[in-house]
Specification:
With 215 residues, the protein is an alpha/beta fold. The protein is built from 5 helices and 10 strands; from the N terminus they run βββαβαβαββαβαββ. The strands form 2 sheets. It has a 7-stranded mixed β-sheet with strand order 6-5-4-7-8-10-9. A 3-stranded antiparallel β-sheet has the order 1-2-3.
């Protein structure tokens, strides 16, 4: 653990059981929501691991939205996907640090790229899979995240969304608004808990599988 006068780094390790390797995630003791590992990200990453027996991620193009520490995206990269981890410019150094920490155990690849929701200034490939973990946190989740998902995807893109159902503040209303708006543009299936990793699931964390509605 590396300490400074105001902040310090600490690392969490999570096993990719399919491969028998550990991923290491550097976090910060101080910072915004992007600087720590969240449970919903772990649930999504472990779901990918649990469902990867048929090597379905090998060679797939994956975009991880609002990556934060990169948990979900780096699980996908470890399992063979070509992953673009995206977040605000201020988060990219942490993502690059975590990519470097894990590059030797990735069966696929991982790169970090700036993506500000609602402003697709960079050219991204059409992904086979989009990952979204615990991004339903601010009003921007409804206002800009859904249009970004719509623009990045096509009719073949699968979108996996993990979120925690929170009771604090306006989070219930925000979640309802997000899901109502999401249903206007995407087909949504709730992934049943028996398909989650048996040791990494929670009654208040949900996984959704979405596909774009083509009119």
């Amino acid at each position: 653990m590396y300490e400074t006068s105001e902040n310090y780094e600490f690392t969490r390790e999570l096993e990719v059981e399919t491969l028998g390797v550990d991923l290491k995630f550097v976090q910060y003791s101080l910072g915004d929501v992007s600087s720590v590992v969240w449970d919903a990200g772990i649930v999504l990453g472990k779901y990918l691991d649990f469902q990867s027996k048929n090597k379905v991620l090998s060679g797939k193009i994956v975009i991880d939205i609002g990556s934060g520490t990169g948990v979900a995206g780096l699980f996908a990269a470890a399992l063979g996907a070509e992953v673009i981890l995206t977040d605000l410019s201020s988060v990219i150094p942490l993502l690059e640090k975590n990519i470097k920490e894990n590059v030797d155990v990735l069966k696929g690849s991982a790169t970090a790229s700036v993506l500000e929701w609602g402003k697709l200034e960079a050219k991204f490939p059409v992904p086979d899979l989009i990952l979204v973990s615990d991004c339903i946190y601010y009003d921007m989740s409804v206002e800009k995240l859904i249009p970004t998902l719509f623009e990045l995807s096509n009719e073949n893109t699968e979108i996996l969304i993990s979120y925690e159902d929170r009771d604090v503040g306006n989070k219930k209303e925000l979640l309802k608004n997000f899901l109502d708006e999401l249903r206007k543009h995407f087909h949504i299936d709730i992934i049943p808990r028996q398909l989650h990793h048996p040791d990494f699931q929670s009654d208040d964390i949900y996984l959704l599988k979405c596909k774009k509605i083509i009119s």
